[in-house]
Batch of 2 targets.
Target 1
Amino acid sequence: MSQGWIEVCEVGEIDEEDVIRFDHGAVSLAVYRSDKDKYYATDGFCTHERVHLSDGLVMGSVIECPKHNGRFDYTTGAAKKTPACEALKTYPVQIEAGKVYVQID
Ligand code: FES
């Protein structure tokens, strides 16, 4: 894997349609596995308040925040339901040799 890619976990460590927390230095991410077996990563904290989205609920391509039920499309970062209005930052994800990698800039 080329420079800038950070290993998150083995592919099987995230269930389908679920999310895990991944901390790396000062950055905290939410890493998702979709119901279509694709992997995505966003900033871990909700843009509404500082609540970690890894405690939220994954439904299709949406993550629902555990605090006020704001929603985001985790494949694009777009805010989908108030009180979440500001988009999440997304990060590139790659799978190689059975492992999930994210690119953190
Ligand atoms: S903290 Fe996420 S919607 Fe309020």
Note: Residues 46, 48-49, 51, 65, 67-68, 70, 83-84 surround FE2/S2 (inorganic) cluster (CB under 6 Å).
Target 2
Amino acid sequence: MVEAFAVASGKGGTGKTTSTMALGMALAERYDVTVVDADTGMANLLFHAGLSDADTTLHDVLVEGGAPVSAATYDRFGMSVVPCGTSLAAFEAADPDRLRDVVAELAGDTDVLLLDSPATLNSKSAVLPIVLADRVVVVLNPTVPAISDGLKVQEYALSYGSGIAGTVFNRVRGDVGDVRSKAERYFEGPTLATVPESDSVQAARSAGVPLLAHAPESPAAEAFRTAAGRLSPNDGDSGDVAERFRTAVIPDPP
Ligand SMILES: Nc1ncnc2c1ncn2[C@@H]1O[C@H](COP(=O)(O)OP(=O)(O)OP(=O)(O)O)[C@@H](O)[C@H]1O
Ligand SMILES: [Mg+2]
């Protein structure tokens, strides 16, 4: 079985990478999980996963005649983690079209694929995870710009046949019931969780460790476990998912 999720938001800094690692760790209690830093231009998952010294990353796989994806796959925190490097030159040398083959290969060997997606929708590599995922987890902050950008992601995903798994409200301070119930009218899928603004999240990031490893009992970690519990990954046929990624024609961005 496999289901591919894109973790996306449109807006930068909403908590996509934090959410990818937290949802991945929570799902890894029941499933074989692979997380991929599909934000190849502004990669930062490596810093959240203690992989800032990784020798081989996705950038090395995405060049012609590059490394096999197995060389860029690391066992961390009960998951398979595929980090991406941060060099601009390596990003420029990487061919985003190759990411389809990489994800197709990974899909054959895992139950849940989580694609940490770029902010914005302004390039082929940026839209790829949203277009190819089975479902998109939309990470929002309770602010008008974040919700507005999240809606653009939803519109784009739906127009290419990707589903919406639901929304995660992150960095929530106080009661946002009103904002949340308004947003629920516009977003498909449930609110998966409301994650509080939390010093534990910052501390985990500074330590280079995912939140669920650094502060597993924190309210924020608990909220992410709740979100993961609501995802119920589908047991899609691995071959079908791999074929979809391999043969997809990535549209020009909007
Ligand atoms: N619930 C939270 N409480 C406090 N800080 C948070 C929370 N969620 C995320 N942060 C912090 O916000 C910053 C951005 O988070 P993260 O890197 O996960 O966002 P992102 O959406 O992946 O960003 P980018 O668009 O740059 O890839 C990090 O420093 C992270 O520690
Ligand atoms: Mg990120």
Note: The radius of gyration is 17 Å.
